[in-house]
Every structure is written in structure tokens, then in C-alpha cells.
Amino acid sequence: MLGGNTPLDIAIEDERFEIVELLLERTTINPKKVYKDGNTFLHKAARSGELEMVKLLLKTLNIDPNQKNKDGDTVLHIAARGGELEMVKLLLKTSNVDPNQKNKDEETVLHIAARGGELEMVKLLLKTSQCHIDPNQKDKTYGNTPLHIAVTGKNLEMVQLLLERGDIDLDKVNKFYALGLPAEIRALDKDAAKVFTHLLEEESYPHFESRVMLAGEQGTGKTTIARYLIGKGPTRMRKSTDGIGLYTGLSYIDRETEEWLEGKQGT
């Protein structure tokens, strides 16, 4: 009957893999068939974490591991998103798998692993020689590289791991801001990346600008407080600033002597 399903199709559609395994002893499967959810059988097995089933399919069928589902995901994308490290290892051993394939969001498997905080998976992807993975590819939504994702997620170990790659481009800019590195550090060579990781460990860096905001109802003395803070006394007569009179005190530090130097005061 046209448009109908075999018992095997139904078992695959419902992801009842114990029944699938039993039926495969008596019948064969179309590895390219796309089911209602936009996935092939291989995609479904990977999404369910069925390592042995994925292994069986790759071994017995002429199946393309780079085939994409409706979202543009390959089976490697799905395995990475599910945190399936052993499955990713298995797929990387498949000679024709391409780890640089992008889905509809233009994410590679490295983007997905970095976002998921999968440190061992990222290490595997970066250090498996046959991968030839490009760590500088940008995604579609934000223009992020895997390093952008690790920095934004404040994942120190992930950042350190990615910086070990000599071909990491620290000057890549996403759609919103430059990769979060001070210009002085970006100008240094790759060996100086340890300076940046130190900044992440300390979660701070020395700077010499401070701002204080005073807020409150009208007539409560905010201007007087501001004048005291910058070394001026109160005015002889109360004069409302209506919240728009700003007083700024400037001071600087000599980095060598660590002495504070007063600057000009202004209004």
C-alpha cells in the first residue's frame, strides 16, 4: 500500500530498538528513509544513545554518516548534543565522516560540544588527527566561534584547551563584540595566551576607573553628598540640580610607585 509502513518502520518510528534489533534478523532497512520527525534511522538511534545500534548500522549498511536531517544535523551533531562521547569516538573512526559539516545554524560539532561543556569531547575533536577540524568557524546566529562560546560561558578549562591549538584566531569578531581579549593581549604572540587565562582565573584585571551613582528622591541632598565625595564642601545656599548636575572627581595612580595622583575636579 502506498504510504504505508512495515512493522520495522513502525518500530523505528517509535524508537523501540529492542524490537528493531529482532526484526533486522529477518528483514532489511532502507538507510536513506526519512521518518516523520525528519530523521533517518541512524539519526534516531544516535538521539536515543543507542551505541550498539549505531555501531551495527555503520557496520552492516551502506550508510552515509554525513546525511543531514531537517535541521541540517548529521549523526555526529546529534551524538555531540547528547553528550555521547563513545558514540562520537565511534563516528570519528568512520573514514568518510566530516566533522566540519554545518547544520542550519551553521554550527559544527565543535560548537555543540563547546556549548555543552563537553571538555573530553572537545579534546577528542581537536586532537584526533584525521578530523582536520577547523576551530575558527562561525555559527549563523551570533557569529560565534567555539572560543567565543567558551569565553562567554566562563569555562576556563575549555578556553585553555582551545588556546592550545596553534591555529586559533584570537581576532575573530562575532556579530556583537570582539572576542573578549584586551587589545594588549591580542597583540602578543600565542605563547602569551597564558596571560589571558590568568585573567580568567582571577576573574578580574587592574583598571583605574570607578563610578558611583547616587539615586534618591528630590531634595534629599544627593548633590551635597557628591560634592563632599570629590573634596568640595556644600554650597552656601541650597540649589536644586534636579538630578542633572553631575560632579566628577578624577584621580590617577602611578603604576610604578602605586601613589594616587589627584586630577582636575569638574562639574
TrEMBL record:
Keyword Repeat attached: yes
Segments annotated as ANK repeats: 3-26, 37-59, 71-93, 105-127, 142-166
Record keyword Lipid biosynthesis present: no
Origin species: Mytilus galloprovincialis (Mediterranean mussel)
Alphabetical UniProt keywords: ANK repeat, Repeat
SUPFAM superfamilies in the record: Ankyrin repeat
Name of the protein in its database record: Uncharacterized protein
